[in-house]
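cron nightly-structures :: item 1 of 1
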Amino acid sequence: MKLTPVALLAGFALLSACSLLPTPEPLDVYRLPASHSAAPSPRGPVIDWSLRVSKPQTSDVLNSAKIAVIPQGDLFSSYKASRWSDPAPILLRNRLLDGFARDGRVRLLSTDDSALQTDLELGGNLQAFQTEYEGSTAVTVIRLDALLIRGADQRILASQRFEVRQPLSGVQVPAVVSGFGLAGDQLTRQVIGWVVEQGPRVAPKP
């Protein structure tokens, strides 16, 4: 089939347009580092109530796989060409679930991905999951307003704010990711201690 001059010009125009489209920049996908915590210390007795660990609620900017950073003032941004393997609320929920499993005292565990009935639910609001610059240095900040909720009727039984500020060894993304791992370890230990302390007081009696 013979192409007309108009068709040839249109084809060249399409090729030119395609060549001008930006090439997507490859992304580095990071998981939250595995726990750096040492082996659990001697534990108390196994707890007989069940616990659901739920994704915390959060803002639109944190409900994302972007690695959030506040470089100055109140400006939210994210690290270029890098992202988390999951949105921040899922990363934190999974870190907490792993922490409870490693601790071993609460053995009847589930997440909000299932519809299992449980005695208590750990939820809350994730207020911060970002890097913040303080002059020429930076810190990882994780802040969680935790709620302990009765599974039967969703009544709030206890609440507590947890905040960890972990200084970073550098400002490159691998150092930032490592800082989130360390901060996640600290927060997990604090939350587990709180839940285990509160549970016997608020859990329904068998």
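cron nightly-structures :: done
Strands lie at 28-30, 51-53, 57-58, 66-72, 75-84, 109-111, 120-134, 137-150, 156-167.
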